[in-house]
Write a structure and sequence with these properties.
Structural class: mainly alpha
Strand content: 5-15%
Number of helices: 7
Strand order of the largest sheet: 1-2
Oligomer: single chain
Helix content: 40-55%
Length: 134
């Protein structure tokens, strides 16, 4: 199993900081190159560059939530959701179709996450493992 993951190009998981202006204030965002690549794909679909996309996402997040606790984490999750929504068919793989032109409710209706499975996981503290009854 690990072979699938350990043979990734090291460039993909190297971190890179980029400077972005959010409301006129220059800020630095540090992400792995893989995420910068996905953000570039998302931005290009709608005729933007990554800094413009980051500003738009930040502004819309502030409008919806009122604050941003961890913008870099939000960007990583957004990238993961973008890829998952492509796999589910919610976002067409054809990069010439802008995301802004999609019906958000239809896109989100295709979203599938294994959240119920997470609730069934039990964490057993070390030293409390019980032997199975035969």
């Amino acid at each position: 199993m690990c072979q699938v993951f350990i043979h990734a190009d090291p460039h993909l998981y190297e971190c890179r900081a980029r400077s972005v202006r959010l409301h006129g204030v220059a800020t630095s965002i540090r992400l792995e190159n893989l995420f910068w690549n996905v953000l570039d794909d998302i931005a290009r679909r709608d005729g933007m560059r990554v800094p413009q996309l980051c500003t738009k996402l930040y502004d819309e997040l502030i409008e919806a939530r009122g604050e941003v606790d961890n913008f870099a984490s939000f960007l990583r999750v957004s990238c993961g959701r973008y890829l998952a929504l492509q796999l589910s068919g919610g976002i067409p793989r054809n990069a010439s179709i802008p995301i802004a032109g999609l019906n958000a409710q239809r896109v989100l209706a295709t979203e599938r996450w294994p959240l119920p499975r997470l609730a069934s996981l039990r964490v057993v503290p070390p030293g409390t493992h019980k032997a199975r009854a035969a």
